[in-house]
Amino acid sequence: MKIMSKYILYSILSLVPTVALAQVVAVESVELPAEKVLIYQQEQFFSNMRQLTFGGDNAEAYWSFDSKQLVFQSNFSKWGVKCDQIFLLEQTEELIPNPPMISTGKGRTTCAYFMPGDSVMLYASTHIGNANCPPPPAPRPDRKYLWQIDPNYDIFFADKQGNIMHQLTSTPGYDAEATVSPDGKYIVFTSTRNGDLDLYLYDIAKKTTKQVTKTLGYDGGAFFSPDSKKLLFRASRPKTPEAIKEYKELLAQGLVAPTDMEIFTCNLDGSDMRQITKLGKANWAPYFHPDGKRILFSSNHHTQRGFPFNIFMIDLDGKNLTQITFDNSFDAFPMFSPDGKKLVFASNRNNGGGRDTNLFVTDWVEPGQQKEEK
User: Fold this and answer.
1) Superfamily of 6-364 according to CATH
2) For residues 61 and 74, what is the distance between their CA atoms, to the nearest angstrom?
3) What is the b/e burial string over 204-241, where b = at least 16 CB atoms within 10 angstroms of the residue's CB?
4) Which residues contact 283 (CB under 8 A, 6 or more apart)?
5) Residue range 335-366, pLDDT digits in tens
6) The dihedral formed by the CA atoms of 62, 69, 45 and 357, expressed in degrees to the nearest 10
7) Is the predicted pLDDT of residue 18 greater than 70, yes or no?
8) Whole-model pTM?
9) Percent of the chain clearing pLDDT 70 (strictly above)
10) What is the predicted pLDDT for the residue at 19?
11) Which residues are within 8 A (CB) of 203 and not within 5 positions of it... i.e. 6 or more apart?
């Protein structure tokens, strides 16, 4: 997800009543094989996996256009931060002990992404409206897990030295979850500027913004297709009077419940809207496969209690659902490098049984392609 604390969603969703599913698949308990410390035996699409971070909550790592760098968010206290800030990895073979922070160190940040040329990045931050770490939502009697839609979030451009070059948004309300099209022409982001959580498209050359989605519900975490012609995103679609009432009441409080989401695609103008998944529970963090015909996403649809979350792959027509990762806790935020050779994702694997969420990068191997172990 593109909001803080989403990477511990699995531990909370176990407390939430869930809807009945058409199919519930039992998750097999597996052990890490000794010869591949980070890769489960079932993870046949992976080879040469490296762990990049070793502490704190690290997530939403996104590649540079040259496929050599990563920008991500972390709250790792040893890097001198109290809540999520944006960090840069200028190489991805091993962790830099103290990666440079490119955000201000104030407020809370999320959703960094490289601009064309890889010297400037955009990210969302609350530091202008609130320089302190925003407090978490108050516990609810029903224990329902909630995300904050902080109205102080705006989108900024910064260079590698952390200098803010420009502020993209300044409208009242939440502006965040921004990503850039592969052709470098557009930025898509989520905003509450019209009273709902909708997608907006910013034309970089024309400096104009148009609303893309208009259906009631949370539209977010959007990415572009490899040809820059389509958007891929997660969405909630409350339909019953009770669900609509709850959604509107929570949104008025700057909150949203992420327990019922599916994956959608549409054209850049919002036309040809298609629902890809119909799995139930929380399906999110989608990203296009480099071939533009398949999608990776994170889901807990296959579980009874709401966790673990694993990464799945599905065709654009909603067929050929395939499980990609098999960790027993949490795998999410998959992103292919632009050259199509590597995948980065966040996981709770190899953390000693704790709560740390770390970043992993792996070579991607298609069926029939020989693995080259290093």
Assistant:
1) TolB, C-terminal domain (2.120.10.30)
2) 10
3) eeeeebeebbeebbbbbbbbbbbeeebbbbbbbbbeee
4) 234, 261, 262, 263, 277, 297, 298, 299, 301
5) 999 999 999 999 999 998 889 999 999 999 99
6) -60
7) no
8) 0.90
9) 88
10) 29
11) 185, 186, 209, 210
The predicted-structure confidence for 183-231, as pLDDT tens digits, reads as follows: 999 999 999 999 999 999 999 999 999 999 999 999 999 999 999 999 9
End-to-end CA distance of the chain: 32
Burial of 11 (0-12, 13-18, 19+ CB in 10 A): middle
Question: 35-41 long-range CB contacts below 8 Å, 24 or more apart?
Answer: 37/350, 38/349, 38/350, 38/360, 38/362, 39/362, 40/325, 40/326, 40/327
Give the number of other Cβ atoms within 10 Å of residue 94's Cβ: 10
Q: What is the average pLDDT across 8-30?
A: 33
CA distance 234 to 283: 7
Within 8 A by CB and 6+ apart from 204, the residues are 184, 185, 186, 187
Q: Is the pLDDT of residue 39 over 80?
A: yes
Cα separation, 333 vs 347, whole angstroms: 9
Q: Are 61 and 346 in contact (CB under 8 A)?
A: yes
Structure tokens at 286: 């989608």
pLDDT of residue 8: 37
CA separation for the pair 252, 43 (Å, rounded): 42
Nearest Cα neighbor of 123 from 135, 138, 142, 106 is: 106
For residue 116, CA distances in Å to 204, 289, 343, 359, 371 come to 11, 20, 20, 23, 31
CA–CA separation, 180 and 113 (whole Å): 7
Please give the single-letter amino acid code of residue 153.
Y
